[in-house]
Amino acid sequence: MFNSLSDRLNDTFDRLRGKGKLTEADISSAMREIRMALLEADVNFKVVRDFVAKTRERCMTAEVMDSLTPAQNVVKIVLDELVELLGSTESKLVLSNRIPNVIMLVGLQGSGKTTAAVKLAYLLKKQGKSPLLAACDVYRPAAADQLATLGGEIGVPVFRGDGAHPVEIAQGAIREAVDHMRDVVIVDTAGRLQIDEQMMQEAVDIKRAVKPDQVLMVVDAMTGQDIVNVVSTFAERTDFDGVIISKLDGDARGGGALSVRAVTGKPIKFVSMGEKPDSLEVFHPDRMAKRILGMGDVVGIIEKAQEMADAEQIEAAERMLRDGFTMNDMLEQMRAVKKMGGMKKILGMLPGGQRMLNQLGGNMDDSIFDKNVAIIQSMTSAERLKPSIINGQRRARIAKGSGTSPSEVNTLMKQWGEMNKMMGRMRSMANQQQQAKGKKGKKGKKGKRGRTAMPGMGNLGNMMGGMPGMGGANPFGGAGGSDMDMLRAMEQQMKGNKRF
To answer: CA 106 → CA 113, 139, 215, 224, distances in Å?
Structure first.
């Protein structure tokens, strides 16, 4: 979404880094470039004016001008102001002690309210809640059917009432939740292509009838400048509590999303990064600002990886350390990466990763996973457990069975070989730490666990190094240690680096 803006800002910072000392003219030129980058990204012009004025004022201080690293200070100031623009701190969804809690979604038609309602229900269900969806959009054809279908996919019931009177449907949903011990009701209201009085009054009536704990406005990130008028009107009439930005994974300029917080003063609570039910994410202003400035979101990768870890995967990681890396492990690794959103999403969350993606044409073909899965599934059980037995004749058979070429099978075997070597080094380190256990007690045991590979993920760095178009490059840095070790080291480096 913010690729163009990110590129423009980083080009400006690169020019500043090429100067030993900054002059007032240098800063003025940089501010001009930042202003043009934000305007071209479709950020509201008043927001841009205030942002650039505050940033320029801070950059003109003696602390920056006389610094030995003035360019780094400018980047830090832009980052701070961007975080402030996006909301400074994370704004969590606040629910009351009453049963049921009511969350009401408002917004224009086409903004993604219905899918946002389902994604929010899925998120709350994962947190141990028992949600109920209320289909209060009685105007859009098949809106209730769409909600019922999506709700059925995630195992959340949908209350449709008489299908004619939105206020009565919302009230009926509350009674249904009480009767069936549902602790959260999510009300999906109707929208229009443009703001009109009937839609606004209906939203006000529903709010007055059910007294929601939270009113969230769903905003399409691809709306552009018109988003300012829309959110201002909804803020005035419904006094919503926060914003859900949908379609943030699209290819629009994204400036409207940057304007919402500054225009309304309402926090962004969630962002939607895809079509699947699990694509709704809690919004972190600092992480988003770093991603816009090309600094990545290493913490986000760690959290996604930890969400996937379970007892079976931890046991599998310990077995890999003990017995070695098999093709079955590699298969699980590929599936784990796909669950995290694929290589493109992971790379985009790494420092400098978005630039690397742009150098590759802005896209990374994840179909290589499907080919590799087909190759592994064409192997026998013995070949998967002990890939070293695969000779030329077996490779030809596997290629034919998977519909691939022998060279593609060879590429996969080479990747397995590199990962197996990495696992061997980690096993050697674990053994050394185990031997030192008698001297260091529990410390040695902790050291072993700290070196365990990321459950179900093997080594992402080597895996990406084998991706077509990557030229064998490893964006995760050098070899050695586990994926979690590397990610945490990168996180610490980001915290300790003055540029960040």
So the answer is: 7, 14, 7, 18
Reading the block at residue 286, the tokens are 């600092």
Task: Write the DSSP string, 347-413.
Answer: HHTSTTHHHHHHHTTS---THHHHHHHHHHHTS-HHHHH-GGG--HHHHHHHHHHHT--HHHHHHHH
pLDDT in tens, 385-414: 888 899 989 999 999 999 999 899 998 888
Domain regions of the chain by residue span: 3-86, 101-294, 301-496
The mean of the pLDDT values for the chain is 76
Separation CA 339–CA 460 (nearest Å): 14
pLDDT tens, position by position, 31-83: 998 888 888 887 888 888 898 999 988 888 877 766 767 778 888 888 888 88
* C-alpha span between 245 and 493 (Å, rounded): 30
Q: How many Å apart are CA 52 and CA 61, to the nearest integer?
A: 15
The topology under which CATH files domain 301-496 is 434 Repressor (Amino-terminal Domain) (1.10.260)
* Topology given in CATH for the domain delimited by 3-86: Four Helix Bundle (Hemerythrin (Met), subunit A) (1.20.120)
